[in-house]
Amino acid sequence: MASANKDTGLEYLVNQLISVITNDGRNIVGMLKGYDQATNLIIDESHERVYSTTTGVEQHVLGLYIIRGDNIAVVGELDDEMESTLDLTAIKAHPLKPIQHGA
């Protein structure tokens, strides 16, 4: 997978910390290492953040991870400095629901 396809608008995010929300409601955070024309993403040093209304955010280490482009709902850039100050154990939230397409 190359990171030379500028049509997807992801070029500026390569080697940056990103957050990906998938169609099934998962939140995966890590360093974007590359992508292809189908927006399949290669993310390194990744982990999944699992939200709960009763406990803080759990982080499940994934390491080097590939996310299929057809399973991506949102890709966002994260601020390294802000991330380092967050106390994820104190954050409580409802888990994301899967995205339902069409009616």
Automatic annotation (TrEMBL):
CDD domains: LSm8. PROSITE patterns: SM. This is U6 snRNA-associated Sm-like protein LSm8. Plays role in pre-mRNA splicing as component of the U4/U6-U5 tri-snRNP complex that is involved in spliceosome assembly, and as component of the precatalytic spliceosome (spliceosome B complex). The heptameric LSM2-8 complex binds specifically to the 3'-terminal U-tract of U6 snRNA. Plays a role in pre-mRNA splicing as component of the U4/U6-U5 tri-snRNP complex that is involved in spliceosome assembly, and as component of the precatalytic spliceosome (spliceosome B complex). The heptameric LSM2-8 complex binds specifically to the 3'-terminal U-tract of U6 snRNA. It holds the Pfam family LSM. Signal peptide: none annotated. Belongs to the snRNP Sm proteins family. GO terms for biological process: mRNA splicing, via spliceosome. Its main location: nucleus. The gene is LSM8. It is found in: Nucleus. LSm subunits form a heteromer with a doughnut shape. Transmembrane segments: none annotated. The keyword Nucleus applies. The lineage of its organism: Eukaryota, Viridiplantae, Streptophyta, Embryophyta, Tracheophyta. One of its GO terms (molecular function) is mRNA binding. GO terms for cellular component: precatalytic spliceosome; U4/U6 x U5 tri-snRNP complex; U6 snRNP. Keywords: Acetylation, mRNA processing, mRNA splicing, Nucleus, Ribonucleoprotein, RNA-binding, Spliceosome. Residues 5-81 form the Sm domain.
